[in-house]
Amino acid sequence: MVDKLKVINFLQDFGCAKIEHLKILFNDSNNNFKNILENNMVSKKGDIFIHNTRKIDNNILIALDILCKFKPRLSNYYLGYNPVAITFLTKDNSMYHIIIADEENKKGIVKIVNSYPLSLPKADKLILAFPDGSELENIDCSIPFLYTTYPNLEILNI
User: Fold this and answer.
1) Model pTM greater than 0.90?
2) Which range of residues forms the domain containing residue 71?
3) Does residue 151 contact residue 135 with C-beta atoms inside 8 Å?
4) pLDDT > 90: what percent of the chain?
5) Same domain? 37 vs 76
6) Is the dihedral of CA 1, 8, 16, 66 positive or negative?
7) Final residue before a domain boundary, out of 51, 73, 89
8) Counting beta carbons within 10 angstroms of the beta carbon of residue 27, is it exposed (0 to 12), middle (13 to 18) or buried (19 or more)?
9) Is the pLDDT of residue 17 over 70?
């Protein structure tokens, strides 16, 4: 059984997470995590747990979807600073930034990515998640990146 306080602290940092994220990130596939609801610090809406000081953030949920795909290679991860949603380190010491764009900010995200390294902290690779593939041809980044579309997380380049 996962320590309840670790899960609550995770939700305090990230704001929200789907039950599938918690199962993967805490290596506890049989847990329903209902025990974290007992102290009124966390609430549940459908399959999403939300820390009571935060609200549901769809970009964080997408970033957690991506992070979970890298779980076997993860060494450490933490909340990033805008526009980076999550930064993680792999077991081979590669640092990745997950950047989520939505319809309102996708042009701005492309500009930020194209101005790397001036606009973002140092990383070995970027994972860029966009609502569609329309911006892929506009990205001219000096760092290797993966471009994926959501919600299905289809990778459009490698």
Assistant:
1) yes
2) 58-157
3) no
4) 84
5) no
6) negative
7) 51
8) exposed
9) yes
